Amino acid sequence: VPGDVDVLVTESVYGNRVHGSIDDSETILLDAVKDAQEKKGVLLIPAFSLERTQIILSILDRALAEKRCPNVPVYMDSPLAAKVTEAYRRNSGYLREDVRKRLESGDDPFSFPSLSVTVAEEESEAIDRAKPPMVIIAGAGMSHGGRIRRHEKRYLPDKNATLLLVGYQVPGSLGRRLRDGAKKVDIDGADVRVRARIMTADGFSAHADRDDLMNFAEAVKPKRAFVVLGETESATFLAQRISGFFGISVDVPREGERYELF
Asked: Could you tell me which of 155, 223, 215, 229 has the C-alpha nearest to residue 185?
């Protein structure tokens, strides 16, 4: 924690709420896999290629080893995620100790027998010919691009399918519209009805939540603060909370506004 802070600029994506724990989100993920097996359906997971995909892979790997998860086919359909995952393997010294030790012992936490990594376009298209149950992990995390959109176009109309959102969904994104309960969405010019079950597991988020942000603000003891990177309601809530708790000037800048600090 830095000391003697004059000005704190803090994000506020989860500035007005506490997100679920990673343990709760892990339970949601594994229950969704079990549901896909029972319904012979498809579990779609839009996931960011950096960090989020690797967390999900490591959870599935551990759950399969401990027999807490059915052994259904899993497709990681993302060339970028494949490259990032390989970078994790090459740079294990930067990873958490338990993950590093597993890699050094030859136990890859990002791979398991039922996982298929599809990089080439024809490999991705071949997933359409696979029979459920299966899990498809693909970018982008907010469904604003990437291969996940093609899979959503195909499976969102299926009542036996599930879409599991594992990260923040920015307003205006396809992921946000689905999270907010849209019954019909436009995907690349096609009207797609939404019959699939939509679930969220926000404990996987890399963003600090309200309590984390408040604890950090208290620790650094700034003389002034700016709250950025959040929806208006979230940013305003956090700004008022920091100002009220610590008695300092807090602003929520709008685009183009200028402030003189010193």
From this structure: 155
